[in-house]
């Protein structure tokens, strides 16, 4: 399984509705698609979206990292020696976690294809179907309530509400509206995307608890680097707190885990630099009794396939945030996992199961 070629190309697919968080607004899903070819005629697929405000990566930087730095390091290596392949991948360039994740997932696609197993079985095979939440973008309370009602009608039982964009009193209004429209049987999780200060977060989360809003968990209330603040919030509220932007690498996870800064961790391949690194985070968390969610950036079904196969393969990964492909106007990939409302069914074919890109209208 000698790696003989690595190539990239760009795609762009419009979203049905703008995706709005405390950090950004996205109207088009863009990505660099990576293909890794081996001498036995196999092709592994990967994807990296540019998420400048989170990972610092753009389409240009991703392409350059893959072609200028990673490709020369991996050409001629045997993919089967993956401990060495991933050592070279991560040494080839600092940072650039999304570019690394795209190559990592392509190598795992190759490895599991060679083994004749769908990737989730190659990685552990814990389960083959998942339930995803659906994200309510941050807008006026009215619009968010309207959206929430629509998503519940579309079959979603778990809603992820984006907050943290302006004053926290407004966020409480938003959550009340969503809870009223969604009903009491729907699970509601919040994502503040670093938008709150630690003390106002404690004050407001306690208020939400007193109001009986029944929030399942709250993602990243404070700034990514503010681990003291994150811990302060975690220690002072009953609602479980999840670290997202605070945990990119296994080293970040180690800090959060050993200081008990959070109750839960959100793993994303684009932050961790791929499945190989994500495995470390999940195992450390599991040992500490911290469950993980796997989430994604705004990715197509290709990137989500790698994340979903990884997530399904591990017992300690108990929550799934894989709604991004459902937000796109078009699914441009052929083969692979299948969505049915809020359920994801992993395919039986080897690897990620992706066989090609369909004809679609390029918006670039
Ligand atoms: Mg998040």
Structure explained in plain terms:
The protein has 364 residues and is an alpha/beta fold. It has two domains: 3-115, Enolase-like, domain 1 (2-Layer Sandwich), CATH 3.30.390.10; 122-357, Enolase-like C-terminal domain (TIM Barrel, Alpha-Beta Barrel), CATH 3.20.20. Helices cover 38% and strands 24% of the residues. The chain has helices spanning 59-74, 82-91, 97-115, 119-123, 141-153, 168-182, 198-210, 227-236, 250-258, 269-272, 275-287, 301-312, and strands at 3-20, 25-38, 43-48, 129-131, 134-136, 158-162, 187-191, 215-219, 241-243, 264-267, 292-294, 317-320, 333-335, 338-340, 343-345, 354-357. Strands 5-6-7-8-9-10-11-12 form an eight-stranded parallel β-sheet. Strand 6 (158-162), helix 6 and strand 7 (187-191) form a beta-alpha-beta unit. The longest helix is centred in the N-terminal third of the chain and has 19 residues, at 97-115. The protein is globular. 52% of the residues are buried. The protein binds magnesium ion. Magnesium ion (MG) binds next to loops.
């Amino acid at each position: 399984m000698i790696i003989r070629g690595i190539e990239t190309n760009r795609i762009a697919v419009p979203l049905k509705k703008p995706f709005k968080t405390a950090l950004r607004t996205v109207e088009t899903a863009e990505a660099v698609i990576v293909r890794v070819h081996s001498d036995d005629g196999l092709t592994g697929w990967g994807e990296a979206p540019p998420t400048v405000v989170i990972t610092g990566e753009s389409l240009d930087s991703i392409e350059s990292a893959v072609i200028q730095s990673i490709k020369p390091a991996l050409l001629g290596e045997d993919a089967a020696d993956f401990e060495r392949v991933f050592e070279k991948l991560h040494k080839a360039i600092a940072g650039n976690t999304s570019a690394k994740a795209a190559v990592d997932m392509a190598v795992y696609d190759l490895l599991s294809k060679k083994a004749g197993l769908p990737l989730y079985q190659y990685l552990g095979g814990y389960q083959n179907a998942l339930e995803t939440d659906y994200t309510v973008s941050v807008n006026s309370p009215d619009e968010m309530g309207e959206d929430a009602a629509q998503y519940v009608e579309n079959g979603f039982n778990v809603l992820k509400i984006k907050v943290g964009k302006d004053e926290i009193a407004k966020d409480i209004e938003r959550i009340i509206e969503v809870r009223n429209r969604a009903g009491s049987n729907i699970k509601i999780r919040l994502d503040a995307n670093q938008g709150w200060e630690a003390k106002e977060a404690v004050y407001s989360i306690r208020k939400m608890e007193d109001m009986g809003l029944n929030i399942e968990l709250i993602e990243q209330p404070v700034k990514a680097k503010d681990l003291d603040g994150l811990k302060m919030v975690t220690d002072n509220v009953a609602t479980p707190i999840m670290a997202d932007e605070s945990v990119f690498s296994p080293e970040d996870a180690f800090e959060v885990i050993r200081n008990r800064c959070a109750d839960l961790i959100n793993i994303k391949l684009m932050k961790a630099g791929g499945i190989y690194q994500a495995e470390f985070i999940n195992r450390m968390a599991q040992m500490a009794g911290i469950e993980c969610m796997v989430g994604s950036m705004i990715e197509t079904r290709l990137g989500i396939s790698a994340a979903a196969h990884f997530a399904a393969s591990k017992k300690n990964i108990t929550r799934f945030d894989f709604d991004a492909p459902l937000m796109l106007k078009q699914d441009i990939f052929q083969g692979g996992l299948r969505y049915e409302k809020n359920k994801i069914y992993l395919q039986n074919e080897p690897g990620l199961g992706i066989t090609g890109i369909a004809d679609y209208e390029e918006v670039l």
